[in-house]
């Protein structure tokens, strides 16, 4: 494996440029009131009333992919990974470290809102079915922005455990910069972990019709609980969290079988790592960067805006529709269909977005309709940030 890794790293890439763009991507995914420092200027304010119908401020956070729904489970994983990247490799980021901190805080400020009511953790905002039937700019959204939460009676240990991990990991990052904010994040992380562990259950049951099949939990919530405890131990060094990891990690080796909507799934592989399965991440994070940046059979970069050849027709509403600067008039639910079906490149460059990638034959169609391969997500980008930061300072490692 090391030999293969060395061979794939023969080609030299501008890792610093790729790092800057991988962080910039998150600005294009922002929901809420955008700051004056916003660099992706074709994006504007959106979803400014999230939570108002129930009297809770849920404005902010990130759209997870090319749609306009805020799914807090993958958003929290992306945040944990960004925080891990800065913790491990922040010293290699140079001026991009501050941008990475801003990306993390955009999420953690939102998660403090989403966990502000004791006994409740908000899991998503928006109607995924209504949203997925439209092709609209986030600035034009007219689909329901319904908030959904898990609770003591209707638990969701996976989403709560991942939010606890994100807050704990972020508390480590901000400790040298803003001790008060760090302490606030850590206090909330402890509270949410206790909630997740005490009131155990999967949000597949509590919110299944809204989170499945989009971000159904296939691997069980046990790995998120261990993951959350591991980050709390790292943030506090408290032995009770370490004991929790030791006592519970051994149960993750079994193959988990879940029946979801009448379909049986197996999970729990130590070879998997992502927004759902944390098993491999609990042990080690490994990822072949050069392939993504262009050292592949097509000689193309799978990061938008990096290199001379990269995806032009990504599955992303905001990128594929004209910006408000170009067409200020409202584009309704079906008004964007012509842009979705067009063969023309997306008018707005979502710089830094890493798409799903090629198929098993190393072929890439560059089609908006082929969302499996052409859609960028926050949880694809987030794990790359730390690796790019390392390679930025160690280009020949």
From TrEMBL:
Q: What class of enzyme is it?
A: hydrolase
- The superkingdom listed in its UniProt entry is Eukaryota
Looking at the keywords, is Hydrolase present? yes
One annotated GO biological process: cellulose catabolic process
Which sites are catalytic?
315, 366, 375
Give the molecular function GO annotations.
cellulase activity
Query: Which reaction equations make up its catalytic activity?
Result: Endohydrolysis of (1->4)-beta-D-glucosidic linkages in cellulose, lichenin and cereal beta-D-glucans
- Keyword entries, A-Z: Carbohydrate metabolism, Cellulose degradation, Glycosidase, Hydrolase, Polysaccharide degradation
The family this protein is said to belong to: Belongs to the glycosyl hydrolase 9 (cellulase E) family.
Spell out the protein name for this chain. Answer: Endoglucanase
Organism of this sequence = Hevea brasiliensis
């Amino acid at each position: 494996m090391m030999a293969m890794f060395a061979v794939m790293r023969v080609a030299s890439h501008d890792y610093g440029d790729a790092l800057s763009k991988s962080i910039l991507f998150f600005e294009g995914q922002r929901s809420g009131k955008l700051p004056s420092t916003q660099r992706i200027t074709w994006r504007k304010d959106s979803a400014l009333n999230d939570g108002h119908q129930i009297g809770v401020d849920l404005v902010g956070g990130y759209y997870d992919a090319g749609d306009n729904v805020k799914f807090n489970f993958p958003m929290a994983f992306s945040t944990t990974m960004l925080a891990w990247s800065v913790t491990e490799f922040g010293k290699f980021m140079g001026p991009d470290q501050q941008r990475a901190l801003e990306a993390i805080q955009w999420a953690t400020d939102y998660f403090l809102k989403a966990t502000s009511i004791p006994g409740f953790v908000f899991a998503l905002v928006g109607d995924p079915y209504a949203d997925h039937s439209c092709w609209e700019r986030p600035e034009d959204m007219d689909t329901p922005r319904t908030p959904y939460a898990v609770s003591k009676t209707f638990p969701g240990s996976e989403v709560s455990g991942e939010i606890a991990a994100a807050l704990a990991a972020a508390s480590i990052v901000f400790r040298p910069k803003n001790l008060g904010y760090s302490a606030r994040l850590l206090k909330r992380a402890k509270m949410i972990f206790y909630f997740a562990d005490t009131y155990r259950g999967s949000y597949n049951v509590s919110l299944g019709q809204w989170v499945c099949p989009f971000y159904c939990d296939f691997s069980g919530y046990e790995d998120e609980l261990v993951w959350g405890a591991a980050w709390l131990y790292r943030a506090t060094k408290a032995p009770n969290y370490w004991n929790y990891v030791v006592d519970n990690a051994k149960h993750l080796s079994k193959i988990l079988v879940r029946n979801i909507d009448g379909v049986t799934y197996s999970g729990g592989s130590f070879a998997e790592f992502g927004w759902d399965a944390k098993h491999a991440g609990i042990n080690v994070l490994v990822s072949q960067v050069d392939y993504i940046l262009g050292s592949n059979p097509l000689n193309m970069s799978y990061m938008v805006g990096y290199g001379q050849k990269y995806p032009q027709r990504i599955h992303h509403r905001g990128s594929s529709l004209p910006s408000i600067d170009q067409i200020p008039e409202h584009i309704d639910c079906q008004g964007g269909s012509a842009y979705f079906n067009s063969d023309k490149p997306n008018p707005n460059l979502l710089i830094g977005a890493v798409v799903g990638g090629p198929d098993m034959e190393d072929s890439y169609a560059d089609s908006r309709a082929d969302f499996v391969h052409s859609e960028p997500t926050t949880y694809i980008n987030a794990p790359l940030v730390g690796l790019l930061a390392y390679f930025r300072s160690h280009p020949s490692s």
